[in-house]
Amino acid sequence: MKTVFVVGAGPAGLFAAQKIALSGHQVFLFNRDIKPGGLAEYGIYPLKDKMKFGLRKQFAKVLGLPNVQYFGHVKVGEQGDLTLADLRAMQPSAMVFACGAQGYNALGLPGEDSRGVYSAKDFVYAYNRLPPYASMDFSTGKRIAIVGMGNVAADIMRWLLRDDPERQTEEVIVVARRGPYEAKFDKKEIEHVEEYISRDGFLRELDRIRETCGACNQDLSPEKLGDATFPFLKKSFPAEPRPKLTFRFLSSPKEILAGPDGRIDKLVVTENNLALRADGSTAARATDRNAVLDVDTLIFAIGDKHDPSVGLPMGPDGYATKPVPESMKEPAYEAWNLETNESLHGIFVVGWARRASTGLVGIARHDGEEGAKKVLEYLQDQPDTGTPSAENLLAALQAKGATPVTKQDLEILGRIEEQQAQARNLTSFKFSDDETMLHAIQNEREALSVQ
Ligand SMILES: Cc1cc2nc3c(=O)[nH]c(=O)nc-3n(C[C@H](O)[C@H](O)[C@H](O)COP(=O)(O)OP(=O)(O)OC[C@H]3O[C@@H](n4cnc5c(N)ncnc54)[C@H](O)[C@@H]3O)c2cc1C
Q: Residue 9 Cα, ligand 1 centroid: separation in angstroms?
């Protein structure tokens, strides 16, 4: 039996842990959040209950394995509870980094620090009640611009138009640098908000961009566009819904102007032309024309980035892994130093940590399991260095000032949250800050110890 540390208990880390543990090795999971699940818990839309319950059950099964130990509320990195060097000093036979892509691409615009301007990831974390975001100010107003046209943007439209209990939304304006054919959301995700799309507004917007898109051979007829990316064009909904969803295509954010209260008041956008590339794809090209949108909130969903403070060498798509020739279909999982062209022996990277934003939970699971296969191959040639006990590791973490949450604590927390849900007549309940969770666990532990 050898010891493997897994950093990150999202889908990729948990399914990698399962595969390694089922081969007879001891796995220790270190997770920044108190609860496991990563974006499956804190990213996936809150009303996708069935999916979330199903995943939680699978994750609980992984944590139920006797040779998997869990330490939640333990961040790995330069400012974390443990550094990469600390982990190395504990001499595991291998390490798997599955800590996802925690940063985001910023707009890089003047005025970006105005109140009411949020990254989509933070906003999603807040409505999914991940501490500390759940207790921060993510207030939205009446006119909200969302920059981006992917599935995350579609989830946020859904929240703002339908499900946010505190919504004041009158209009959500989607700002996209290219045209309607370049929308990236899945049809089933945009279906949730189709009935809010202002048909008149949409048709006027198509008229505004018809010539530019036509120059790239794009046919903006409702029939063609309805088949491709906007099926609502072939259905019948109210022409002027309330609240309404509108689109501003061929527009890139240029400047954010704040009002006297410091909150965003206007978004200046640059209008774009569309250029056709040799491979048939399109690119946005800025013109010298600007437009001003009156908005009180701006949420940008333009992609994720990795957290360099974790301490792994960075590559173009995430933490760097060994380069493989293009002809090879299989990715490499071993961490790689691009400067010295050397592998970081025994350190593997899986899931969104390896490549950000690469699809759904199933893909992250597959990536975790494929990475785990490489770990198992690697372990075959490694000497047995002995396995630390969970108690010793826990004590070492506590000695460093960390307050780790074990799998027994998670069971306690689960029971407490269930009681809270019942008391409030809700299907589920989540505490919104770490302190309250840690307190509740501690109180219950003490109560159990006196019984
Ligand atoms: C808004 C949104 C909606 C989505 N909706 C769906 C959907 O409906 N259906 C679907 O199938 N997929 C959906 N996805 C995709 C899905 O959530 C991801 O594919 C999947 O969660 C990626 O898994 P991962 O384990 O690689 O990373 P993550 O899920 O990000 O997990 C990373 C884990 O690492 C931990 N961590 C981070 N940094 C550190 C650190 N420094 N030290 C220790 N631990 C750390 C975190 O606490 C977290 O638990 C959605 C994603 C987003 C962003």
A: 9
Among residues 229, 223, 215, the alpha carbon closest in space to that of 183 is found at 229
What is the percent of the chain where pLDDT is above 90? 90
Instruction: Give the pLDDT confidence score for residue 218 in this predicted structure.
Output: 96
Could you give the CA distance from residue 449 to residue 214 in angstroms, rounded to a whole number? 73
Give the 3-state secondary structure of residue 117: strand
Using 50, 70 and 90 to split pLDDT, how confident is the model at 325? confident
Show the ligand 1 pocket: residues with CB < 6 angstroms.
7-13, 30-33, 38-40, 43-45, 48, 75-77, 80, 98-100, 102, 124, 152, 155, 310, 351-353, 359-361, 364
The token duo for 428 is 């589920």
Model-level pTM? 0.95
For residues 69 and 322, the answer to whether their CB atoms sit within 8 Å is: no
Instruction: Report the separation in Å between the CA atom of 365 and the middle of ligand 1, taken as the mean of its atom positions.
Output: 11
Rg for the chain (alpha carbons), in Å? 24
Q: Which domains does the chain have, with CATH numbers?
A: 3-102+307-405 (3.40.50.720), 104-304 (3.50.50.60)
Which segments within 251-384 are labelled E, that is strand? Answer: 251-258, 264-276, 282-294, 297-300, 304-305, 334-337, 342-349
**Structure confidence at residue 15 as a pLDDT band (50, 70, 90):** very high
CA distance linking residue 136 with residue 116, whole number of Å = 12
* pLDDT tens by residue, 268-309: 999 999 999 999 899 999 999 999 999 999 999 999 999 999
